[in-house]
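REQUEST ID: PR-0412
SUBMITTED BY: lab tech R.K.
PRIORITY: routine
TASK: structure prediction, single protein chain
INPUT:
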Amino acid sequence: MFTGIIEELGTVTAVDEQGDSVALTVRGPLVVSDARHGDSIAVSGVCLTVVEQTPETFTAFMMKQTLDMSAHGALRVGDRVNLERAASVGDRLGGHIVQGHVDGTAVVLATDDGDGWRRLRFALSPELSPLLVDKGSVSLDGVSLTVSAVSSESTPPDDAWFEVSLIPETLVATTLGARVPGDRVNVETDVLARHVRRMLRLDAAAGQEAR
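STATUS: complete
OUTPUT:
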């Protein structure tokens, strides 16, 4: 489990394609300082398992499902990524509960700068639309954020969007500060929203069977 509070900006140092899987090596001295084989590290929101490490880097494998569900299939050497170690029992939960299990991706539609802050608008897919609400929690590339606005229910599904507002610290401490229209980010919705949607679908299915 993670909190969505980024600890370090890492750099991809190797992308080794192995059939339909990828061995990803990332430089992150802080997050590997106490890492052990088998530990979990969130890489831009995706929970990955450490299989090899050096004093400054770690390597993790990404299988086909991870590559299909996330934006990690486009990672290249030199790319910056957000890094967070798994939360420890007793730590303060500064963000929100983040599992590192992304629901999909979203594309930046527009950015709008204020006095030291920036608003990002993202396209909202029909699959994720029911899971995002105004002032609800969302993880983008592993960063715990609050949804600052979302399109109305009457908006056509293909035109749906949501927005987040980034404070100066988020702009400099994460990769989100460099995002521009057309960029794709990993999205993890609130775990409670996912469970509620699943229960509603099961209830609806049971009601149809009973008729």
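NOTES: The radius of gyration is 18 Å.
REVIEWED BY: pending
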